[in-house]
Specification:
Helix 3 packs antiparallel against helix 4, helix 6 packs parallel to helix 9 and helix 9 runs antiparallel to helix 11. 71% of the residues lie in helices and 0% in strands. By secondary structure, it is mainly alpha-helical.
Length: 331
C-alpha cells in the first residue's frame, strides 16, 4: 500500500485540499490543453502567432474573471451561464460532499460547454474587430487547433480520468476508439458553430458597420464619418448575443436535467456519481494534514501546484508577448 498511495492517489488527494473544489478537474484539463497550444505557438507552428496569442489571452480572461468573481463572492459580476455551472458542480466546496450530486464527467462537460459555446465566440469576435483584415489566417489557425484538441481528448483519458474517475476510464476502454471519435466530431461541430456565432457578432457590431460602409463620393476609404445606424446595429448585436446565451443555457439544461426519454443518460450519470463518490472517499483517507492555503485568488501556495499550474501556460504566453512581437516580420 505504501507504493499505491503516492502513485495512484496522489493527484486525487490534491483535489481534497484545493480551494477550487471539483472545479479543479476542469482547471487541470484546461491547463493541459492550453499548455499544448502555448508550446506550439512559441515554437512557431501557427501562421499568425500574434493574433492567436491575443485570442488565447482574450479567451482565458472570460473564464478566469468569472471564476475569480464567483470564488470571491462577487456573484453580480459572474455571467449567468457560468454562475449556473459553478453552483451545479459545487465550485469552491469540499469535493467529497458534492461529487454524489455531479459526476466527474458532468464536472468536465458543463464548464466546457460554457467556455466553448458562450466565451469563445465573444473572444473571437473581439479579435475580428481588432484585426478584421487578418481573419483568413485566424481561421486557418483556428482549424489547426482542432488537431491539438483531438490529441487532448486522449490525454484527458490517460491522465485526468485515471486520477479522478477510474470507472469512466474503464467505460471508455470498453468502447475502444468510438468515444474518442465521437467526442472529436462533437468538438469540431461546436467549434464550427462558435466561429459562425463570432462572425455574426462581428458583422453586427458598430466596428464592422464602420468598416463595411462604403465611403461617400469623393472620400477615400477609411476617412471621414460614415452615416451608420449604430443604435440599430447594437440591437442586432445584442440579439445575436442573446441567442448565444439561450443556446448555451439549453445545452446546460440537457446535461443537468435530461428528459425522461434520455433515461440511459440519467442512469449513466447516477452510476458514475456513485462510483466517483466511493473512489474519492477512498482517496480522502490518504490526504495528509492540510498545509496553509493562500486564499487570495483562490489558489494554493506555489509549492502545491494544481491551481497554480493551471495558470502557468497563459502566464507564460503573457510573459512571452514581447518575444512574439519582436519575432513577427515587419512589413
Amino acid at each position: 500500500m505504501a507504493l499505491v498511495k503516492p502513485f495512484i492517489f496522489q493527484r486525487a488527494a490534491k483535489l481534497h485540499r484545493s480551494p477550487l473544489g471539483l472545479l479543479l478537474i476542469f482547471d487541470e484539463v484546461y491547463a493541459d490543453v492550453t499548455q499544448a497550444i502555448a508550446v506550439k505557438i512559441l515554437e512557431g507552428e501557427f501562421e499568425n502567432r500574434k493574433e492567436l496569442f491575443n485570442l488565447i489571452l482574450e479567451f482565458d480572461d472570460y473564464y478566469r474573471e468569472a471564476k475569480d468573481a464567483y470564488l470571491s463572492g462577487q456573484a453580480e459580476q459572474v455571467p449567468a451561464v457560468w454562475d449556473k455551472v459553478f453552483r451545479a458542480i459545487g465550485a469552491g466546496r469540499p469535493p467529497l460532499r458534492w461529487v454524489w450530486r455531479k459526476s466527474v464527467l458532468e464536472v468536465l462537460v458543463l464548464p466546457i460547454i460554457v467556455h466553448l459555446v458562450h466565451d469563445l465566440p465573444l473572444a473571437i469576435s473581439r479579435r475580428l474587430q481588432a484585426a478584421p483584415d487578418q481573419w483568413p489566417s485566424q481561421l486557418r489557425d483556428y482549424d489547426k487547433i482542432n488537431d491539438l484538441l483531438d490529441q487532448g481528448i486522449r490525454d484527458v483519458q490517460r491522465q485526468i480520468l485515471a486520477a479522478y474517475s477510474p470507472t469512466l476510464l474503464a467505460l471508455s476502454a470498453l468502447t475502444g476508439q468510438d468515444d474518442e471519435s465521437l467526442l472529436a466530431h462533437l468538438f469540431r461541430l461546436l467549434r464550427g458553430t462558435t466561429w459562425y456565432d463570432a462572425v455574426r457578432l462581428f458583422s453586427n457590431s458598430p466596428q464592422a458597420a464602420w468598416l463595411l460602409e462604403p465611403p461617400a463620393v469623393g472620400e477615400e476609404a477609411g476617412s471621414g464619418f460614415y452615416p451608420v445606424e449604430l443604435d440599430h446595429v447594437s440591437d442586432r448585436f445584442l440579439s445575436v448575443l442573446n441567442t448565444i446565451e439561450k443556446r448555451t443555457d439549453s445545452y446546460l439544461n440537457f446535461i443537468l436535467n435530461p428528459s425522461k426519454l434520455m433515461l440511459p443518460l440519467r442512469l449513466l450519470f447516477w452510476s458514475l456519481r456513485l462510483c466517483d463518490t466511493l473512489y474519492l472517499a477512498v482517496t480522502w483517507l490518504f490526504v495528509p494534514t492540510p498545509e496553509p492555503i493562500d486564499s487570495a485568488g483562490g489558489r494554493l501556495e506555489p509549492s502545491r501546484g494544481p491551481a497554480r499550474a493551471a495558470v502557468q501556460p497563459v502566464t507564460r504566453l503573457r510573459q512571452s508577448s514581447e518575444e512574439i512581437r519582436l519575432r513577427e516580420p515587419v512589413l
